[in-house]
Design goal:
The chain is an alpha/beta fold. It folds into 2 domains: 4-58 and 371-413, Urease, subunit C, domain 1 (Roll); 60-335, Metal-dependent hydrolases (TIM Barrel), CATH 3.20.20.140. It is 31% helix and 22% strand. Strand 2 and strand 3 (31-36) form a beta hairpin. Helix 6 packs parallel to helix 7 (260-269). The longest helix is centred in the C-terminal third of the chain and has 24 residues, at 294-317. The two termini are 22 Å apart. The structure holds zinc ion (ZN) (2 copies). The site of one zinc ion has 4 residues, from strand 13.
Length: 416
């Protein structure tokens, strides 16, 4: 852990458009100790970084990744084996950190073992939060069995071997979903993810379908409330977004087919949406070449049509939005592109909040990450220029990041 002193910084604090100039900021023990406009002393052993008026801002947060998704075809990932998937995770997490992402939330397939490897420094990467396995109903978006596969009624509890895979557990009925929730929380999951609607990659469910019953969703939400955490739900159609928000889901993933009424409802409920433009655009452009299954390719092209207008509906309604990408396989290199794609609808200030303070609030970590304030984790980026004027500075795979600090650790410092 480094003791660091930044001087002559312009600071974007994660929220306010008014960036104070000529600031001093001191980091020790992984935490921001002081921020002020008068010179701070540098205790012995402190590395002093002259910011030269560059913008110092909180590290970025990607709220929707899958570290182990080593291919675009989910059915192929299971067959690749654990070593291959882990190698992919190591590569994508290192790339994320180099792009300025100091926190990622693995919202399906992550586990304690990878968390431990990162925490112990075996692997370079961002702060790592994970949802564990995603809960899906039989025939839902987490059920990847081909239509030809016969049913296995012997395993009705669903928790083992009836269509689950490394990303999802199949659980049907209130008792089974409660048990699956408790199992994932027991294994350290930071939140619980459910499949709230049909999806693109799964073979047998239409995308417009609402998944899970009200009593099942409410039971999962209750378990999470008792654990002082929250539920995230994969939802494409407006109807699924609405009912999940109504039943207490905090983090809606995708929200691609949302309409104005539903966007207003979500805003009133105070729920968050994590759109994922990066994967939708990547699959439309490269899906065929990368071997994305044809039935899924048709589905992604269908949601693509509405993706950008959905973003605009969320903006008009004032929904709290978070940065997310959902990239699979080789498309992991598109992680910064989400900024560029969303820039068709949002201002740089709105985009910066989505990737810092609003994301932190959704993660129930406001004041700890996504902000620059005394007592917050020292997750910092020093940007060459003003990202509030040019969001492209954050969309260049880290090329315009002069320095990157994660948890007080100086990950990158470019020569002056
Ligand atoms: Zn999803
Ligand atoms: Zn996803």
């Amino acid at each position: 852990m480094h003791s660091l002193l930044f001087r002559n910084a312009r600071i974007f604090d994660g929220t306010s458009a008014d960036c104070a100039e000529g600031q001093w900021l001191r980091v020790a023990d992984g935490v921001i100790q002081e921020v002020c406009d008068t010179p701070l002393a540098a205790p012995e052993g402190t590395l002093v970084v002259d910011c030269g008026g560059r913008t110092l801002m909180p590290g970025l947060i990607d709220c929707h990744v899958h570290a182990f998704a080593s291919d675009v075809a989910v059915a192929r990932i299971d067959a690749m084996g654990e070593a291959y998937r882990t190698a992919h995770a190591v590569r994508m997490l290192g790339h994320a950190l180099d792009c300025g992402f100091t926190t990622v939330r693995d919202i399906g397939g992550g586990n304690h073992s990878l968390w431990r490897a990162l925490a112990d420094g075996l692997v370079r990467g961002p702060r790592y939060l994970y949802a564990g396995k995603i809960l899906s109903m039989t025939g839902g978006h987490g059920d990847f069995r081909p239509i030809e596969e016969p049913a296995r009624y012997g395993a009705l509890c669903g928790c083992a071997g009836s269509g689950g895979n490394m990303f999802a557990v199949i659980a049907d009925g209130v008792d089974a979903v409660i048990r699956a929730t408790r199992e994932e929380l027991r294994q350290g999951a930071h939140c619980i993810k459910i499949m709230g609607s049909g999806g693109v990659a799964s073979p047998t469910d239409p995308i417009w379908m609402n998944q899970y019953r009200e009593d099942e969703i409410r039971a999962i939400v209750n378990e999470c409330v008792e654990r002082r955490t929250y539920v995230s739900a994969h939802c494409h159609p407006a109807s699924a977004v609405r009912r999940c928000a109504e039943f207490g889901v905090r983090s809606i993933e995708h929200g691609t087919l949302i309409d104005d009424d539903t966007a207003h409802f979500v805003a009133e409920r105070g729920a968050f949406i994590v759109p994922t433009m990066a994967i939708i655009f990547a699959l439309v452009e490269q899906g065929r070449a990368l071997g994305f299954p044809p039935q899924s390719q048709a589905k992604v092209e269908q949601v693509f049509e509405q993706a950008i207008s959905g973003l605009d509906a969320m903006r008009r309604a004032g929904v709290k939005l978070c940065y997310g990408t959902d990239l699979l396989g080789k498309t992991y290199t598109d992680q910064c592109r989400e900024f560029t794609l969303r820039a068709r609808v949002f201002t740089p200030l709105e985009l910066l909040r989505q990737a810092t303070s609003t994301a932190a609030e959704m993660l129930m970590m406001a004041g700890q990450i996504g902000c620059i304030a005394p007592g917050a984790q020292a997750d910092l980026l020093l940007v060459d220029g003003d990202p509030l004027a040019d969001i492209g500075l954050l969309a260049a795979d880290g090329r315009h990041l002069h320095a990157i600090v994660r948890g007080g650790e100086l990950v990158k410092l470019a020569p002056d």
